[in-house]
Design goal:
With about 170 residues, this protein is mainly beta. The protein has strands at about 5, 20, 25-30, 40-45, 50-55, 70, 80, 90-95, 100-105, 120, 130-135, 145-150, 155-160. The strands form 4 sheets. It has a 4-stranded antiparallel beta sheet, with no helix packed on it. It has a 4-stranded antiparallel beta sheet with strand order 7-8-9-10, with no helix packed on it.
């Protein structure tokens, strides 16, 4: 309501430090223990204002995510969360946008692919769906990120950004 996100206890009372206000409508959220330096879980929310927000359970912003991450386009699908980079402490967050962008960040807000400005993949056409993350290529180290786009094509990438599909096109 009114561009706010609430975190409530089982008694339906608002937890201290909440609600949080954003400039756009909150579409989707996800919760996980993303920040290994903080006890408890974090809440990530994507908004129509083109930003992704990351808060600790007590309502404080996660370092590197202050004021939200500005991304290109309207963010309307649930962010994916997984350990995509075993050399990095914490979980990674994958966010898709209606403007064909797929973004990947470490817990501290730095881009997963160095020098990418957070862009993990940029598609020729269509809005990517919620990113499914799993180890589907047992011969390749790490996890893969799979999503569909509005045309029905399927895209699959290794965690290092290389496409599982020849020519980077979708199936």
């Amino acid at each position: 309501e009114n561009n706010k996100i609430y975190l409530r206890a089982a008694t339906n009372t608002c937890i201290s430090g909440w609600p949080k206000k954003t400039e756009g409508k909150i579409y989707k959220t996800n919760i996980a223990d993303i920040d290994p330096d903080y006890p408890g879980e974090e809440i990530i929310a994507v908004s129509t204002d083109g930003r992704a927000y990351l808060w600790h359970g007590d309502g404080t912003e996660v370092f590197g995510w202050e004021g939200g991450k500005w991304l290109d386009g309207e963010l309307v699908d649930q962010p994916g969360i997984a350990d995509l980079d075993p050399n990095y402490d914490g979980l990674e967050i994958v966010i898709t946008s209606r403007d064909r962008g797929v973004y990947a960040f470490h817990a501290d807000g730095t881009e997963m692919l160095a020098g990418s400005n957070g862009i993990f993949a940029f598609l020729d056409y269509g809005s990517p769906s919620y990113p499914a993350i799993a180890d589907i290529d047992r011969d390749y180290p790490g996890l893969e990120i799979v999503f569909t786009i509005t045309s029905g094509k399927i895209y699959a990438f290794h965690a290092d950004g290389t496409s599982m599909i020849s020519g980077q096109g979708g199936l």
